[in-house]
Design goal:
Radius of gyration: 41 Å
CATH architecture of the largest domain: Orthogonal Bundle
Structural class: mainly alpha
Strand order of the largest sheet: 2-1-4-3
Number of strands: 4
Number of domains: 2
Number of helices: 4
CATH class of the largest domain: Mainly Alpha
Largest sheet: 4 strands, mixed
Strand content: under 5%
Distance between the termini: 18 Å
Order of helices and strands: HHHEEHEE
Shape: rod-shaped
CATH topology of the largest domain: Helix Hairpins
Bound molecules: zinc ion
């Protein structure tokens, strides 16, 4: 019934301007998010890279320790040969026993070093076994990151285009209407921060969720004039509510 009269053009303008501003805010928010998302994915990848480098470093560390042990074994073997060389020239039993004891000590030391070496070889083997898998995993992650980045960059240029279009639409809208109305709109927008136009549902302003007086509700529903909410100053408009979501007439 109320919809038989077309909505006041100024009110139509305000609704369109609000929609465009919401679009602009949306695109801007999306655009600001893209570099943050890329940066976050990048630091995830860097953390994986670091894990891989650490694994590499641990292998090198074992290899170095193993080489050191080999050297120590070599020194002990030399030590033993030199000690044994003394044997033919010994004069007393006591001397002989002392040399044998020394040889035994060296032998035990060598066995200990060789056992340690063996342990290191086992550690090295298991670490080396894991490495190719970790490397392949990292490369896979790196590939995924690059794909994600390209996707995000494409999204960025799409958003930039959408934003540009929305800004152009806004300029056209503003150009085509009374500057005083635009000023009023800007004033309310500044005051409220989020949006300057609100829908009336039942008797409730959807901007501040406060009740509107019945007489004003009737006038707002007629859509003939521009009214502001007496509580929050937002411009109020009314559209018929769809019966159900699926049965909503398009
Ligand atoms: Zn309100």
């Amino acid at each position: 019934m109320q919809n038989s009269v077309p909505m006041n053009p100024q009110l139509q303008f305000l609704i369109a301007l609000q929609e465009t501003d919401s679009e602009i805010a949306n695109w801007e928010k999306g655009l600001a998010l893209v570099p943050v998302q890329i940066e976050s994915a990048k630091s995830d990848l860097a953390a994986r890279r670091k894990k891989l480098d650490d694994a590499d470093a641990r292998i090198k560390e074992v290899q170095n320790r193993s080489r050191q042990l080999e050297q120590e074994v070599k020194i002990e073997n030399d030590h033993m040969s030199k000690t044994k060389l003394k044997l033919p020239s010994v004069k007393t039993n006591k001397e002989y026993t002392a040399i044998l004891a020394e040889v035994e000590t060296i032998e035990r030391k060598i066995t200990g070093l060789e056992d340690r070496e063996l342990e290191l070889m086992e550690t090295l083997e298991s670490r080396e076994k894991e490495l190719p898998g970790s490397k392949a995993e990292y490369q896979e992650e790196e590939k995924k990151f690059n794909q994600y980045k390209s996707r995000k960059e494409a999204e960025k240029s799409r958003l930039e285009k959408d934003l540009e279009a929305a800004r152009r639409k806004r300029d056209e809208l503003v150009r085509s209407t009374d500057p005083k109305l635009v000023q009023r709109y800007e004033k309310v927008l500044k005051l409220r921060g989020d949006h300057a136009v609100a829908r009336l549902v039942g008797h409730i302003c959807q901007g501040c969720f406060q009740q509107i007086l019945p007489q004003l509700v009737i006038e707002i529903r007629s859509g003939e004039k521009v009214f502001e909410c007496i509580h929050c100053n937002r411009f109020l408009y009314w559209v018929p509510e769809p019966v159900t979501e699926t049965a909503a007439p398009k």
